[in-house]
């Protein structure tokens, strides 16, 4: 296609930040326009700069406006007699050029693989000219108005790409190569997504269709209104809140000891909307806005938080639009378009404010990973210029490390808070609703930007980024140049002063403090040590300052109760299509990927093996599954994972047996490290036995597990019923868990057997009981977490002597905090359990001795210590 001839109006930063765009490279620039007489007549980028008045004398197709003053430029050109259809903004020209140069593609595959992805934003940018299918019954028919052809015909079509959309892409590619189709034209869907990203400058953008979103999403939003002396604007602010079309919200009205009549207005609205409003007024000014934010966060009951500053206002659909963005569970913060207003007039827009960040289209909604958007934009500028434009997940309180920094900052504290909040997750942007940010001439930000504190605070932000994000250090050199230009605009030409306050060496020194990004993998959100332990570990990693993301492989359902175990501050990525795994590892910035289940281990290994450019180290924790699966499946799995796994963490000695048999252990002994499982201490709620029909003097046992036969539910029931025959003391058994045995036992009819199913607060039940019990003979048993739960509640345990259970029950002096049962031919004798129950239930002194040992035995399960050991392993792998 013939190149379009264009004239570019603008030679400054706006053009300079976009000059490498494909749309400009594919055009013929015949001249530049500039109103500055000093620039006119100069050769610039291979073309002459001329005055706008002279543009009519040259031949061109379009004039492209490249400045934040595009409206004024348009008026000037129209006054010169230039037809308005010849005058385009840069974005309009991009769209025009795209429509003229749209690539043509053929899709090979018409089944579910395509159907699940057909709404992808990628396909909106390309013209599908045909489908290919080997099924003769489909050939000649139409799909979505487009013909389905046999693959032999494809060589006659003029197309840019043939996109393979099937799990059999290897066979498809071979078939096309046999038809002499150029290999460069044959791409997978994942490669199409990557091409789309590169062509449209959307760094870290996540296509909507590749992640699972939350259904029936109607969260409570806590709206925090921190006010100080904004009587003049407060009524408009509050009206824009209480008139929101999304109605599930609470309002927390804060006042920081205002001296005007603000409180009267706040109290008026509290009286008008009493069911959803709380007021908290300070008798003394706190001195810092973040203290008010933190106070509001501690009071908030909602899933989401909106800090609605008291002098701003917004569209009435603001919350309705924003809440929807959090259906994707890795989105930690969403922000909307802002318009900067003064005296009732719009004086600036977000698009103008962000004009020098060309990697993102600010006229289109998008979701981007924190890893990518910080590397490309958020490290250069606070892209959320006004708190009122943002909604974020309720993380409980601002972390101490952020508070410590914020106390020193007047301008950039919120920027650091946002950077901290989104780590490991995503940020969502939308122009579908508008926040109106009121600009005051004497605002703190205006004052700070004119003195050296501005540059010092920018250094603090860059240090924070260097400590917490994987970025190219050149980004800070670019930031320094931006700051120098800011200094020229506000202070003069002595720009070397900037180097005294924004010190590159000091920033780069922070790099040594950065911890690698962890991707923690979940088989599914279900009950089981391999499913729940990664959540506890991720929570503690986050608590210790790591950037951690949960990847849910969604291989066996999603239990909302298990979801509640994950800290809300840990981003969750629910993967819909595994072929996108490599792409997700890349855009989330994964450096360590840690899996806990054989199926996930193998999926991750395949991904890393077939994508060798991904620089991410695999760590596997062995929870006992390899011993439990068939020998053939075990052999195949080990053959896969040995290609990529850099460290195996085993929790029980028996975990090593399959690897010893495969010859891996002897060859790679240094790859194996033994670490125990651990759990956090939690607050406990007192439960009343009477509510369950249990006598106060009864001896109560509690069994918590998946309700599998091999976990010993039937044997525990038989043991309790048998023991009861030999004692007058009532003996009760509480069974907690879901599965086959729950269904079989729930109608047993014995009032002393309490089959309660799944519960969240298992430790409260242990506290109400006298002992834990786990008569398991499950082949995959390694290091049962319920043993830890019981000991942390001060309750000894009766359990089978398999895997690491004996070590779990052993205290610091080598004594057992419980009793062990030996297996007989691989099974449990319920009468042996009954003997132990009777022994403990009837000997109060012995029972007290066992209880006294629980505290000592539980010390080794301190998850903070275990997590630090994991951290050392991660760190050494990155070194």
CATH topology of the largest domain: Spore Coat Polysaccharide Biosynthesis Protein SpsA, Chain A
Number of domains: 6
Number of separate strands: 35
C-alpha end-to-end distance: 50 Å
Radius of gyration: 32 Å
Mean pLDDT figure = 91
Count of alpha and pi helical runs = 36
Structural class based on helices, strands and sheet pairing: alpha/beta
Biggest β-sheet, characterized? 10 strands, mixed
Rough shape?
Answer: globular
Helix content bin: 25-40%
CATH class of the largest domain: Alpha Beta
Low-confidence stretches: 444-448
Q: Indicate the CATH architecture of the largest domain.
A: Alpha-Beta Complex
CATH superfamily of the largest domain: Spore Coat Polysaccharide Biosynthesis Protein SpsA, Chain A
Q: Beta fraction of the residues?
A: 15-25%
